[in-house]
Amino acid sequence: MNAFSAAARHLSFSKAGKELFVTQSAISRHIATLESYLGHALFIRGTNGLQLTRMGATYLSLIRPALHTLESATSQVMATQQSAKSLNVSAAPTFAAQWLFPRLKTFREVNPDISINFVRYSVADYKSTELDFDASIQYGYGDWHDGAAKYLTGRETRLVCSREYLDQHPISSLEDIKQCTLLQHIEIPLSWEYWFSTYLGDYDRARFGPGFNLFSMIIQAASSGFGVALMPHCLIEKELATGQLVDIFDRTFESPLGYYLCAPNWRSNMESYERLSQWLAHECFHGGGTAPAGQAPGKPDLDRPANGQPCATDCPYCVAAG
């Protein structure tokens, strides 16, 4: 397969051989064997070089995804061999882009021996033993069964919109929100309903409004003047600082939902997981988050102090920061 893929890419047996560190004749033999097995010619061999046959082009398009999967799996295994302290992390996309990645450099500086690989995000079933990650950062109540969960940040939410939208739709009280376009997160359909029932009373149109399946989409929609968004503060720090979004009431509203660092119970004692957990707790306490990082799974205690717990006296990240 590798011989065929390389030959098809270069349209040359000799260049394919150089790529794979084998001779031209070895590539030719591999291709001949494959053609015999398939019962089809894969290349047209001419004086001007190689050309793929129609069947060769079709076969290449069919096997290319599988080859990419094999290459990815091989890279992950090799990375694990190179660093016994590697960690595969599945993180909620907007949280990763808006909060995690801008801070990740500090973790790397203190933990150069740990390799973090970010894999596809999915809401996990922690009962499964076939998970493709060691830890995940999920948005929810923190009550995932068969998994350890530590609260990080995200319960503090703000009502935001663009300056243009606010100028066109003056808002002076919470009651005025009922006249606004409510931007909905379709994966969290009760968020607006909870907000209204907590701060204004039941509202039968709390779920009405355009829906989006990512917070990043809602940020963009709100910034474009599409309506009012109910957003975790940790996701919009930059947008508020630059004026891209306006905090309508200049206050936070508590939500029962937040971001949690989660792991299957059988992986939560990994050294790399523990070090990531400690770093996240430090960043949430010192770097703009709200993190009682040791909170047990279950619905959050909203009476708990919003700034979380201070780091241990020997916190390596506090030491590194001086």
SSE blueprint:
Layout: H1 2-10, H2 13-20, H3 24-38, E1 43-46, E2 49-52, H4 54-82, E3 87-91, H5 93-100, H6 104-110, E4 116-118, E5 135-140, E6 147-153, E7 156-161, H7 163-168, E8 184-185, H8 191-199, E9 211-212, H9 215-223, E10 229-232, H10 237-242, E11 246-247, E12 253-254, E13 258-264, H11 271-286, H12 316-321
Helix pairs in contact: 1-2, 1-4, 2-3
How would you characterize this protein structure?
The chain has 322 residues and is α/β, with parallel strands linked by helices. The chain folds into three domains: 2-82, Orthogonal Bundle (Arc Repressor Mutant, subunit A), CATH 1.10.10.10; 87-154 and 257-321, Periplasmic binding protein-like II (D-Maltodextrin-Binding Protein, domain 2, 3-Layer(aba) Sandwich), CATH 3.40.190.10; 156-254, D-Maltodextrin-Binding Protein, domain 2 (3-Layer(aba) Sandwich), CATH 3.40.190.10. 40% of the residues lie in helices and 17% in strands. It is built from twelve helices and 13 strands. A five-stranded mixed beta sheet has the order 4-3-5-13-6. Strands 7, 10, 11 and 12 form a four-stranded antiparallel beta sheet that branches. A hairpin with a 2-residue loop joins strand 1 (43-46) and strand 2 (49-52). It is elongated and about 80 Å long. Mean pLDDT is 84; it is low at 289-308.
